[in-house]
Amino acid sequence: MNESSKSGKRILYSPSENYVSRNIMDQVILVPVGAASGDLNGFITFDGAAVDIWNKLSGAPSDLDELTRYLAEEYEQPDDIIRNDIIAFLEDAVAKGVVIEKTA
Length: 104
Prior knowledge:
The chain has helices at 36-39, 49-59, 64-75, 79-96; strands spanning 11-15, 19-24, 27-32, 44-47, 99-103. By secondary structure, the chain is an alpha+beta fold. Strands 2-3-4 form a three-stranded antiparallel beta sheet. Strands 1-5 form a two-stranded antiparallel sheet. It is globular.
């Protein structure tokens, strides 16, 4: 996952508008709405660090560097470990259509 696109612009990540989210206890639950409801029969849940990533993205679109700094500080872990976890989350979330990528 590259931080810049071919045009040299930053890639920002944000929640898809095809899902509504609710924080319940220590989890985030995503429910598909509109066209997405035909693609997914059920809901998606996040826990652990994925909740913090989702909540950060829900506040404002963020790039990989912003997410890494935020979570490294939150969890007091080295950037490289945190970054790998964020990349894994984003790749999965983008593939499922719950997070979208935009160039800035």
